[in-house]
Amino acid sequence: MKKFYALFPILGLFFIACSDDDETPSETTPTPDPIVYTSGSADFSNYVAVGNSLTAGFSDNALFRAGQEASFPNMLAANFALAGGGTFEIPFMADNLGGATINGQTDANMDGAPDIGNRLILLFTPDGPAPTPKTGVGTTEITDKLSGPFNNMGVPGSKSYELLAPGYGSLAGLAVGAANPYFVRFSSGEAATVIGDAAAQNPTFFSLWTGSNDILLYATSGGTGTFQSDPMVSPADYARNDITNPTVFAGALDAALQALTAGDTDGVIANLPNVTDIPFFTTVPHNPVPLDEATAAQLNAAYALYNGGLLQAQGFNLISEEEVAKRTISFTAGEGNAVVLLDEDLTDLTGVNPALINMRQATEEDLLVLTARTFIGTEAVVGDPTTINGIAVPLADQWVLTPEEQANIETALTAYNQTITALATQYDLALVDVNSLLSELRENGIPLADGSTVTATFATGGGFSLDGVHPSPRGYAIIANAFVAAINAKYGSNLPGVNPLDYTGLYID
C-alpha cells in the first residue's frame, strides 16, 4: 500500500509527460492452437461396455443414477466423444437411492440375485461413523422394462459365464433365481444374453471387464463356498459363493470375445485385482479386543479345559505340537487381543472329544471381513455377557478368510489373469493391468495434481466407496485413466483422460 500511495505526487507529471506521446501498443498473448484429439486406428463411434457392477458404476453397495453417471465407461465415452465417439446410453435407475422393488415388493430379492437395497451413507453415531443404508423406498421397479439398446451393459452381480446365459434377463426367471434383476430391466427379450445384446449393437469399440464376481462372492462370504477344481462340473451346479473353475472362466471369456470381435471390432479388456487389496478385507484387524485384567483371567480359566484337551490329543499323537500351539487360546490384559474363530482346516478332534471344536485365535495372516466390525463384541444371547461373539463364541467361517481360503483365491486369480493376458494377445486388444493399479493404490496411494493422495483406506482414503468393495467416483476416475492410457498405447489415440479431482471421493449424502 505504501508504494501505491507514493504514486500520487507524480501522477500529474506523468499525465503531462505522456499527453503528447503516441499511445503505447498493448501486448497480446497469442491463443494456443486447440488440441485435436484423434482416435488413432480405433473407431469410437459406437462404444459398448460389457461387465459387472464395476462397469455399471455400482458404489456404496447400490446402483443409483449418480453412480451410473460416474461409471468408468461413461468417463471413457466422454473422452471418445472428443475423437468421433457417439452417444452413450445408460439404463438408469429411477433415483439416487439405489433401492428397487420387484412387483412392488421391497423384500423380493431372489436367490442368487444381487442385493437391491438402498445405498450406504456415513452416519455419525455415538459409537463413531457408521455406514448406514439411506432411508426411503426406491422408485425403481425391476419389472418395468426399459427401451434399449444401451451402451452400458454392466450387470451387477454377474459372473463370467452368466454373460452368456440365455434367460439371464427373463422376468419369469426372477421367480426361480435364474435371472438377474438389473439385466431384467433392459434385456431385449426373455431368452436374451448379455453378450448377445451387446454384440447385436454392432459396436465399433468395446470394453470387457468380467470375472471379479467369479472370485469375489467366495471371498466376501468368508470362503464359505468351494473352489470348483473340476472343469466338467456345470456352472448350473455351482453354489452361488463357489469360485468358478479357471477352465470354465477361460471358455466363457473366449466365447464373449468371439462374439464381440465378430466384426473385426477393436476393444480393451482388463485383468482382475486381488480382492485382498480392497478395504473389505484390510479394515478390521485380527486383534481388536481390549480386556481388563479380571476379564482376561476369566476367559483364560474358561478356555483352560480346551487347551488341556489339546495337550491330551497331542499325547495320543492325534495332532502335532505345532497344531497345539496354533490352537491354544490365551488372553492378556490390555489392547490387541486376537479374536477366536472356527477353522475347518484344523484337525477334527470332535470324534474323540466333542468339546475340542476346530477353533483357534486369529493371526495377522487371517483377513476379517468388513462386516465383522459391527459383529465382534455383540452377544450371541442378548443379555448374556458370557456369549460375546469373537471372544467367548468363536467367529464362524463367514467372518474371516483364512490363509487356506486366500490360497484358493490366489490360485484362481493367477489362472484368470493369465487367461486374460493370453486372450488380449490373441484378439489383439488393449489390456489394462488393474491388478497392479489397485495394488499400488493400497501400498502407496495414487498422487493427484493438487498434491493430495488417493488411498485404499476405508471411508477416508477417497479410492473406495462405503461398501469397501467398489470404487468411489474418484476411484473409478483413476481406473478410467488406466483404460485411456492402455487404449492410447495400443491404438495410437491421444485421449486426455479425466481429472479425478472432478469426482468425489465420498458421497456426503
TrEMBL record:
The entry's keywords: Signal
Taxonomic superkingdom: Bacteria
Signal peptide: 1-19
A molecular function (GO) term: hydrolase activity, acting on ester bonds
InterPro entries listed in its UniProt record: SGNH_hydro_sf
Keyword match Signal: yes
Name of the protein: G-D-S-L family lipolytic protein
